[in-house]
Each structure stands twice: as C-alpha cells, then as structure tokens.
Amino acid sequence: MLSDRALAAFRSALGADRVFDDDATRTLYACDETPRRVQPDAVLFPVSHDEVAALMRIASEHRIALTPRGAGSGNVGGALPAPGSVVVSFECMRRVLEFDPANRLVVVEPGVVTEEIDRLARSAGLFYPPDPGSNAYCRIGGNLAMNAAGPRAVKYGVTRDFVLGLRAVTGDGREIRTGCRTTKGVTGYDLTRLLVGSEGTLALITEATLKLLPAPEAVATLRLCFADNRSALDAVSRVMHQSVMPCALEFMDHRAIDAIRPTGAADDLAPGTRALLMVEADGAVADLPRQIAALEAALAGGGLLEMKSGFTREAIAQLWTARKSLSHAVKQIAPLKINEDVVVPVSQLAGFVDFIDHTANAHRLAVVSFGHAGNGNLHVNLMVHPDDADEMERAHLALDAIMLRVLALGGTLSGEHGIGTEKRRFVPQEIDSATLELMRAIKRQFDPHGLLNPGKLFPD
Ligand SMILES: Cc1cc2nc3c(=O)[nH]c(=O)nc-3n(C[C@H](O)[C@H](O)[C@H](O)COP(=O)(O)OP(=O)(O)OC[C@H]3O[C@@H](n4cnc5c(N)ncnc54)[C@H](O)[C@@H]3O)c2cc1C
To answer: What pLDDT score was predicted for residue 460?
Structure first.
C-alpha cells in the first residue's frame, strides 16, 4: 500500500485535488478493455510536463511502480494496473501546444483525443492519417505507446510514421527530448522510434510533434461480395500487386458475415456472400475514377458475386454498414472475446484463414476473423464463455496453434494492439533470447528501478 509520506509528496507536487486514493476512483481505473481488474493504490492526474517529471521523481525516490494510462481502450492489458502500482492518467493533459500548417506539424500533449488531431489538421487542408477504430475516444499518448494504426495504414503507415519528435520523462526522472521538427533528420540514435510502441515501459510521454499530410480531396469506396474467403483474399493479393495503393483494404470472413445477419446489416449483400472486402481510394477528384477503375480490374476474378461503388458521403456510409455493425454484433455470440491481431504476409492470408477455419472446427469454437487485409493484419476473435472451463481450455489450445502458424508463415504476434499482459507468453517464440536480453538492457537504461509499467511486454 502507498505510504502516507509518498501520498503527501504526490499531493504537494500535483495538488490534493488531482491525487485520488479513494475506493471509487481506484475501482474506476482498475481496468482497460480486457476483462481483468486490478485496483491501483492511487490515481494521479498531472496537467503538465513539469508535474509528470515531479511525480516520476517521487515515484523513483519511493520506488513506486507507475501504470501510464490514456483512455484505457487498449485490449491487451497495457493500461491494466500492476498490483501495488499508481496509475498516471494523462486525461487532463489535452492541450494542443502548437499547430503549424506551414510546416505541416502539430505539437500535442498525450491526453489529446486522436480524432481531434485529424479534425484540427483538416481545418487547414491537412490530415493526420493514423485512424484506429477507437479514435473518437482513445488518446494520442496511448496511440504512441502502442504504435496504433487503422485502415489507412495500408497506404499511409502507422502512428510511428507520423512522429517527428517526443518529450518524455524516464523511469528515474530524467527529462528527455527525441527527434526534431523537420521531416528529415538523422542526428543521433532514433529514440523516437524506440519510444513509440514501447508500451509505457521506457518513459512517460508528455509531448509529441506529429507530422501532417495534405488532405486528399475525395474518397471513393468499393464493396465486394465473394462466394468464399479464398476468392476474397486472392483478390487482396492481386490488389497489392499493382500500382494503385488503396487507402483501406478490409476483409470480413464468413463467420463475421453470419454474426451480422441477425442485425439486418447483411440484408443488402449479394445472396451467397461468404466473404466481404471493403476497398477505398483517395486523392484528387479528377484522379479517383482512374484509381477505382484500376482497383476494379485487379479485384475482378473467380468467386466475385457483386461489386458496388460509392462516391458520395451517403453512398459510402451505406456501403460500410455491414463492416461497422460487426463490433457490436460479435459481442452477441459469447460474453468474452479473445481478440488477437496477428499479421502474416499478404500472400499467405488465404492459406492462413483456411487454417483458422480448420482450427475453429477442430476445437469446436466460434472464431470470427476480419481485419486490415492489405497489411496482412487479421483480427482473430475467439468468442468464448469464461465460466466454461472446457471451452476455455480448447480456446487456449487453438490460440497456441494459431500463434505457431503465424510465426511459421513469417508473421508477427501483433500488428497494432501490442503485447501488454495478454500476449507476453508468446513473445519468446518470436524474439530470440539474445535480442530479448538487449531489450531488457535498454529498459534498464531508461528505467533502472523497473518502475514503468511492470508486468507488460516482456515475458516472465
Ligand atoms: C472498439 C475498439 C477499437 C479499436 N480499434 C483499434 C484499431 O483500429 N487500431 C489500433 O491500433 N487499436 C485499436 N484499439 C485498441 C486501442 O484503442 C489502442 O491501443 C489505443 O492506442 C489505446 O489508446 P488509449 O488512450 O486508450 O491507451 P490506454 O489503453 O490507456 O493505454 C495503452 C498503452 O499506452 C500506455 N500509455 C498511455 N499513455 C502513455 C503515455 N503518455 N506515456 C507512456 N505510455 C502511455 C499505457 O501504459 C498502455 O500500455 C481499439 C480498441 C477498441 C476498444
């Protein structure tokens, strides 16, 4: 339990009204999107870089573990408090410190909601491409720590590709700045790219300088219904093997389509649809017809039942209905979603989805797969009942088999959700012991007392 002396030190650094150790607040901050709950000893709400530096120094002096937290929307237990830790919530650090359209950059605090950055950029004809599905409420600090991404990653890249520089506080209270404000810069080691995706284990990020791009003039959407998964995923391979890069290339398997049928969202799909692709192009208005024609040509092939296009906001929204209804519909299958976001090379996707199908049948499990097919990033959702021990055992066996297959195909454990607490046991299968030891040594340099987000990312 937190000592009175440490509590008093936090209160004097932040003010008593931003240090909470009451039961209600600790309960509220005991979770993220995973079903587990661990109450922190206290919750702190800093409002500035200086306060973060001060609280880190107190934590270092008293050897108190800290769990950084954005919106708590992560689904791998990254923001789940370590037992006996104190949560540092960045919700109150939500200032835009600088918006510089001429240099296409924005400087933000970590608590800014991701969508707000894009909205601000668009007010000046620019945009911020990373678009995680949670961007209406997740915070940029969480995105940076997890290297989040969304559908647009296939064309534009992930959060890491849009970070020019960071300000942060290390685990022993050192205040550091990484990177620069320009789109070129090679001075020193690239600590910016190291901190992005470090899951709060190396430093508390207090400021980010983000790169913006000119906003595309328009977007056009294709929705394709296929008779089977393999035909859809073969079409994905063809798209990735031609010159027009879509800005979204999303896939839903037959179980995902079955899941949305009760909601009515599949009513306007072609009869016999067993797989769906959503394909989007963006750019200059005059160029969109050329792009769409090229994509249509690449997508056409065996198993295609129907291809519809949308060029207006309303038509596009209508085409996305099936995909957008999925998250809610999946929750009706079973109370617990074991949500993996593995990645395999795009050319291996069709065989991998066959393997998942086979594994689901062999273990008698409901497994719904969908995802960012253009990146080979598949969300494999095992829908289970946590109080059914036999089903949970089968789910874990299936999971082991799926992870092994991912790695055998040259893939990776996580495309965007990260490792957190949930995938730690698989890490040694992907990262060899020498490399892991180097990572631990880097962690010790940043966080000598092991206070930042313990129990995350590294295997036991
Ligand atoms: C419906 C839904 C859809 C989603 N869709 C996507 C998606 O499309 N793509 C995707 O990538 N993810 C997605 N996610 C997962 C999640 O939203 C992302 O991982 C997001 O980046 C987490 O942001 P957050 O603010 O909620 O961070 P949290 O969950 O609070 O924290 C995430 C991690 O960041 C660390 N952290 C937070 N702030 C800081 C900081 N300032 N300094 C250091 N470490 C920090 C935490 O310790 C934790 O390890 C989705 C989640 C949901 C619920």
So the answer is: 87
CB-ligand 1 contact for 59 (6 Å cutoff): no
User: Which atom of ligand 1 approaches the CA of 415 most closely?
Assistant: 11
Q: What is the DSSP string of 110-122?
A: TTSBHHHHHHHHH
pLDDT band at residue 91 using 50, 70 and 90 as cut-offs: very high
CB 18 within 8 A of CB 90: no
pTM: predicted TM-score of the whole model, two decimal places: 0.96
Task: Look up the CATH architecture of domain 4-89.
Answer: 2-Layer Sandwich (3.30)
Is residue 1 predicted with pLDDT exceeding 90?
Answer: no
Contact present, 208 and 148 (Cβ < 8 Å): no
Return d(Cα 369, Cα 154) in angstroms, integer.
18
Q: What is the pLDDT of residues 249-270, one digit of tens each?
A: 999 999 999 999 999 999 999 9
Distance of CA 36 to the CA centre of its chain: 19
Tokens encoding 230: 């393999």
Fold of the domain built from segment(s) 333-428: Alpha-Beta Plaits (3.30.70)
Q: Say yes or no: CB of residue 455 within 6 Å of ligand 1.
A: no
